[in-house]
Amino acid sequence: MVTVNGEAKQAAGKTVSAYLAQAGYDTRRVVTELNGEIVPKARYDETVLADGDSLEIVSFVGGG
């Protein structure tokens, strides 16, 4: 189990990019933090989530 924004999710074994796509996030509009460290967008495809990880996802919303 991976804690995503405070909720337990079945995401272990997935890359950050795969999880974001499955969950419907637009990677151009989010910032992710894995276990207290910012994950650069260039590393989303290679960063694999593991049991016990904590992932925080912050979405940016534009408006006017």
Commentary on this structure:
The chain is an alpha+beta fold. The chain has one domain (2-59): Roll (Ubiquitin-like (UB roll)), CATH 3.10.20. Helix content is 12%, strand content 31%. The chain has one helix spanning 16-23, and strands at 2-4, 7-9, 30-34, 37-39, 54-59. Strands 2-1-5-3-4 form a five-stranded mixed beta sheet, with no helix packed on it. A hairpin with a 2-residue loop joins strand 1 and strand 2. The longest helix has 8 residues, at 16-23. The radius of gyration is 11 Å and the shape is globular. It starts with a strand and ends in a 5-residue tail after the last strand. The model has no long low-confidence stretch (mean pLDDT 95).
Give a quick summary of the entry.
This protein has one domain: Ubiquitin-like (UB roll), CATH 3.10.20.30.
The helix content is 10-25%
Strand proportion: 25-35%
CATH architecture: Roll
Structural class assignment = alpha+beta
What is the CATH domain class?
Alpha Beta
Average pLDDT value? 95
- What is the rounded distance between the termini? 38 Å
